[in-house]
Fold these 2 entries.
Entry 1:
Amino acid sequence: MAATVQINEYNDVGEVKEANITNSNMGDVDDPNLDPVANPVIPGENTYEKYQTLEVTAMGGSSAIDNLKIWRTGALGGSAVHMTNARIADYAEKSYVQPIKTDSTQADQAMPTSEPVSADLGIGGALAGSLIAAGESDLLIHQIQTDAGDVAGSTSTMNYQYDETA
Amino acid sequence: MKVRCNPCGKVFKDNEAYLNHVCAKTGFKPTQAEHFDALSGGRFSLQSKAALARGEARKKGKK
């Protein structure tokens, strides 16, 4: 037995929870698992923010889940930037607000493009936090901000990593 | 807060109800590893083993 873990996304004004999302496609609509072809971002504008969590649905006999690391691999199109609240220092837990497509004030750091040296998403408001029972991480917030000269469309991979202790 | 099971599309009044349902897509509850393996073609178990290896290695390093 081992812990069971999934990634969730929160959307809309009513904070509807989409449990166990299929992908983290970014685009011009506040929907989980969105179709980026049907909802492209106009160059110079932003995607809607994503609000996501890592959730342990059962501990499965393990004692702790911790050391959450979030990063992206693969290049974005043109000079677009990928912003997030994830960080390895000066971390502060963020609250949910309805996702926006104007410049995010919640996501104000560049998304790491390689595995961080230490946790960059907290549990219970702390990077050193851990889950010892079923529950969720702090909110991961991220947004892609494009430049007017960018060409629509790029594919990259979001990485959500955790450590598990028996 | 409403919770929607992405794999089967069913909507629940709260997280407890979601966690206790048997997903129509997989035949398992979201608290069972079989649910995630069914959705990922078995990759979940491999990712879980890797997470456990990292956690145990870090614990030994702290001793």
Note: The interface with chain A takes residues 1-7, 15, 18-19, 30-33, 35-36, 39, 44-45, 48-49, 51-52, 54-56, 58-59 of chain B (CB under 8 Å).
Entry 2:
Amino acid sequence: MFLTNSKGSLENRRNKIYKILINGFFIAFAVCCLIPMITVISISISPEDDIMKFGYQIFPKHIDFLSYKYIFAYPKQILNAYGVTFFVTIGGTLLALLINSMAAYALSRKQFEYRNPLAFIVFFTTMFSGGLIPWYILITNYLHLSNTIWVMIIPSLASPWNMFLLRTNFKAIPDSIIESAKIDGANEMYIYYKLILPLSKPALATIGLFFSLGFWNDWWLCLLFIDKSGLFNLQYILYRMMANITYLTSQMPLNLGLVVDTSQIPNESARMATVILAAGPMLFVFTFFQKYFVQGLTVGSIKG
Amino acid sequence: MYKVKRTLLLILCMAVMLTSLLTACGGSENATNSAAAISSSTSAETSTVAQETTLPEVKLTWYVLSNSQPDDALVFAEANKYIKDKINATVEFYPLNQGEYNDKIKVKLAGQEPIDLVFTSSWLNPYNDNIAKGALLPIDELLDQYGAELKASIPQKYWDMVKLKKIGDDKAKIYGVPNYQIEASVNGLAFRKDLAEKYNLVDAINNMKNYDDLTPILNTIKENEKSVFPLIDANLTPEGKYDLTTEAYKYASVANGIAGATIDIDTFKVAGLDDPTLNATELKLAQIRRDWYLKNYIDKNAITGNVDLEPYKKQGKVFAYLLGACKPGVEIEEKTKYGYDIIAKQTRAPMTSVGQVTATMNAIPNSSKNPERAMMLLNLVNTDKYLYNLLNFGIEKTHYTKIDENTIEILKDSKFNPSMAWALGNQFNAFVQKGQPADVWELTKKLNENAISSPIEGFSFNSEPVKTEIAQMTTTGLKYDKIILNGAADPVKTIEKRNKELSINDNWKKVAAEVQKQLDEWKAANVK
């Protein structure tokens, strides 16, 4: 009696210690993840002088929205850029998922006779590329895509890496499911749309996230192909703004005989403000996708 | 089954609609653009019928090295009205900043896109490479025919300096128009004026002849001003000169100061590690710096990494520092930036080099459909004060106010102030900004005239035959240079150690022999 009782309390105590340790570890870990984020926010609302004097602070000594004012001085441009980026990200991700999953599905089916040569052709492009300039000439002179919104979507639609990832995922779906659907009278489109896609939701979500991050963060395509300021995306606008600030606050204009009053130009704080503007929306998207990641881990276990 | 088909059909329909919608948008935009262009062209034509009847209307594209501004569209429209009147052309300006310029223009030139004007220079969108690739048009004839004014506005010696011979051509040609401005580099030192006056150092500063004369000045500051460092970076003469006067310096390095690549320009002989004058100077400078280091003239915390001088200057924590460009008006510019009056002292004769003259140019690409018009535009922008200032400072009263005929003040909330006058054209046409000396351009021109160019100008050392030696010596340099330049260790021993390392495998001697060989060949071909 005594023995069991003490053993029970010992176990309880042990559990408690474990719990404290584990919780403590994860709290510490979470804090480590949060601190950089908080610091970024703090710097973005600190006056430039404070950053010069005290360095980066976790909590700002004074609050000053100069950098946001500087960036949003002409809100039309930024809002327009947000619009372009949202369109490209959403439209691009959906189209990319559609195209890659269709290709992956075809290549995953054993009934498709030429799947291996075709897969090789796709694979081949990952090893060799035509080079920047031929690619540029193709897009501008033959496809005439420059200065259209599509140039930010189409060149990155087909992604061999993600396509093969999806194909491997589709291959893991037992053939018997497809066969039984066929016996029930389903055609290929129906199987793809009603069976394969829903069964691969976690994989699609993962790859969708890759794609959306790619589209969201891209400024290179915009730099190369877009001249019209109305089609600039968010990352590119922020990039230009930062380049502008860096130039004005550097030694260079002075050496070249120009007079610039730099006291009203935020530098470090503006840098951090652009980080927040650029990364903020993606944080929400990530939490939305997160549930699929968790699902992705458990899907296999439920089926046994 | 039916439901699936319907949904798929719906998706397809939506995709098609979306595509057509977007293409329609793009199309209509083009349509309105061209409509606007047509209407503006007709109005302009009627106004200039008498003047330019022979010139057909054209559209030019100019990728300007600039920083895009909120009021770009407004200013460019205004500029176009003016250009239209003058040369009956509409110019599409695309401002690109320094970070993106190379990436964007490289592919455009390679893709033979019809561009009419680009920025090119020794450091961005490289002039030499572009010529080698055949991307730029030789403009000698165009200049004579359509740019006579422009040609006359820049001294002939600078035109000669931008001339280059393309492989396969029989003579050198001009491929770009230099943006005429300060064409000489001048090194100097800056001293905080308030402190210099407080301790009666102004005369001492002005009469300074060499490095040793600096020591008592720095000492006064060290002893009296506890919160100010006399120096942050002890390397006040990048070329290793002991004299702080404006006389021409005898030595020139052709490979980033690598041992064995320093040339005595009087005799055209390499001065190596065994050159007594060079060695004595280095040791003398190193000992002075060691002395400063031991006396705590330098912020010892700052020399461990790469020092960013800006915070020190902004907070007024440094008394003396190196001025990269010690030119007319520099005092006011430094004051605008850091809030302190300074005394600027030149420490080297102004030097002109090809690198300096080609540092900022505009050129006509080979792919241009209207090179004649592009030249006319270049001519206009370089010789017409109104247009040049419009593109620099914007519209009067909207972006700046005039104080007198030539002086302006930029409005505080100006939505157009790219601050890129140096990349656009002849800077001597620019308005003087409030704060600059009224005669800043005359002074700069005088400085240009007084500038000397090195006798070995035009000689470029091909390091390929000795690249292993140079790589090894660069590593050695990285190890010791910072120590020697800041006096962080005993100079005699450190220099001895370094020289021993540089002499491994006769490295520096091999480099010296190669430099001498190439220099002799170059001299035989170029110096009469």
Note: Residues 16-52 of chain B have pLDDT under 50 and may be disordered.
